[in-house]
Amino acid sequence: MALAIRDVREHDLDAVLALNNAAGTGILATDRTRLRHLYDHAHYFRIAEQDGRLVGFLIAMRQDAAYQSPNFRWFQGHYESFVYIDRIVIEHDYRGHGLGRIFYCDVQSYAEVRVPLLTCEVFLEPRNDQTVLFHGTMGFQEVGQQTMGEDGPKVSLLARELPSFPFVRERYLEQGGLPAEPWLAERSRPADRGVAA
C-alpha cells in the first residue's frame, strides 16, 4: 500500500505519543496533556501512514498559536508572521528514505500561501550533523541561537524565506483571500470549534 500523508485524527494520538517518546535525544519527550494541547492548537498536524501504521508526523503552528515553547516565543519576539515547525518524528525504520523531505515539502506548501517565513530549530547539544545538513539543504539559515531554559540544550534557530508568498499575498490574500479549494483549507482544530483545550 502507498504511503499516505493526512491530517491527524484524535484516535491517532496514542500512536503519535509512543512514536514521539521513542524518538531519542533529538526530540523532546512529551505527555498526553501536552500532546492534546498541540492537537487542539496546532495549525498543521499531519501524519504519515503506511499499511495502517503510523510511521511519522510533523506538527507546526502559526505565530498566533497558544503555545509557550521558548523557541516558538523567540520567533514571536523576532518575526511578525511565520509558520513554526515544532517537531518532526520519523519511525526508525523509515529514516533516510526521504520521508522528512516529503513532510517539509508538505508543510512548505501549507505555509507559503499564508506567511513569508518557515521556522524551526535544531539541537546543537547533542549536535546531529545529519539534521543540521538536512535543514541547510532545505534552504534554512541560522537566525539565532539560545539555550532552552536554565540548563537546557543549546539550539540553532532557523528560518527559510518562502519566495512564493509575495505573489500569493498580492494576487490572493490582498484581493479577498485564497480560493475555496480543499488543498488550501485550514485544519479543523478543536480550539477553533470552541472545545476546551
Automatic annotation (TrEMBL):
Residues 3-163 form the N-acetyltransferase domain. Keywords: Transferase. Pfam families: Acetyltransf_1. It comes from the Bacteria. GO terms for molecular function: acyltransferase activity, transferring groups other than amino-acyl groups. This is GCN5 family acetyltransferase. It comes from Luteibacter yeojuensis. The lineage of its organism: Bacteria, Pseudomonadati, Pseudomonadota, Gammaproteobacteria, Lysobacterales.
